[in-house]
Amino acid sequence: MKASCLPAALLCAVLLGAGCTTEPLPLACTRWELTRLHGQPVNSPLGLTLQFESRSNRIFGFTGVNRFGGVYAIAEPTLITLPVLTTRVEGPEAETTLETEFLAVLNEFGTYRIQGDMLDLFVGGERAARFFAAAP
Asked: In terms of pLDDT, which residue wins out, 43 or 102?
């Protein structure tokens, strides 16, 4: 009886994950949450996020204060983003300072690395930001 449930369970797992498995980039189909910026832990109550959409080469996310978006191109291991655009909501000084630093990294980084559920962005060979893969 248990053996007959296994094929159905495998089919369900494949169908549930099918939307992500067709993406050509490991960056895509993942919601990345910022955990470290310039080596320092990020403590933001709202969370800073980054997502990549490979079909349209769009990058988008949330800075803790504003939403942002832009476009990107990839030539392994280099990832190029055009300057990101943001909404213009005012926030607390600490959050807007963090937002400014986060957006600067997104506009300056050149290479990336994914190891397990972590994404690192590098500026000038130094890790500038670290993200973890969050639930969608």
From this structure: 102
Beta bridge partners of 135: none
Reading the block at residue 83, the tokens are 């300057």
3-state secondary structure of 132: strand
Q: Looking at residues 95-106, what average pLDDT do you find?
A: 94
Tens-place pLDDT, residues 13-23: 332 333 444 33
Domains, the chain, with CATH or none = 23-134 (2.40.128.270)
Residue 124's φ and ψ, nearest 5 degrees, are 60, 35
Residue with tokens 């990058």: 59
At 40-58, the pLDDT tens digits run: 999 888 899 999 998 999 9
* CB contact set of 13 (below 8 Å; sequence gap of 6+): none
DSSP secondary structure string for all residues of 54-123: TTTTEEEEE-SS-EEEEEEEEETTEEEEPPPEE------HHHHHHHHHHHHHHHH--EEEEETTEEEEEE
Cα pseudo-dihedral 33, 110, 28, 91, rounded to 10: 40
